[in-house]
Amino acid sequence: LVGTPTMMFFGYTFCPDVCPTTLFEASAWRQSLGLDEKSLQIIFVTVDPARDTLEVVRDYLSPFDPPILGLAGNAAETEEIKSSFGIFSEIEGEENDPYYLVSHTSSILLFDREGQFKATISFGEATDSALAKLRALVAG
What we know:
Blueprint: E1 6-11, H1 18-32, E2 41-46, H2 54-61, E3 69-71, H3 75-85, E4 89-92, E5 101-104, E6 108-111, E7 117-121, H4 127-139
Parallel strand pairs: 1-2, 2-3
Antiparallel strand pairs: 1-6, 4-5, 6-7
């Protein structure tokens, strides 16, 4: 996280609503500020290691330009990174059901150039508020 202001979002590729909406909004905010991935990076971390391999995450994020960095790991790695950032996630229903949902923290975490946590952008937060936070983050 050091070197570039960062938006970090935890989600999963099978998410029907929150995750695609959040990633679309984050990408749109970055573009509306005229920034590329070197000026403001977006990192997506899966909370569903059983279904989200690195290849699945890469395919899920491939339409975004500038790119979004995707991270995926095994169950232990996923639990470790969630714990490190205070992220909640829990499978709803049966894990053997291929269409299970995952409840999860839906806020975007913001980190400055030094990797220090600065703020969050909540799911559904007003665009003006989100853009103001991002301008402040990038300005340092």
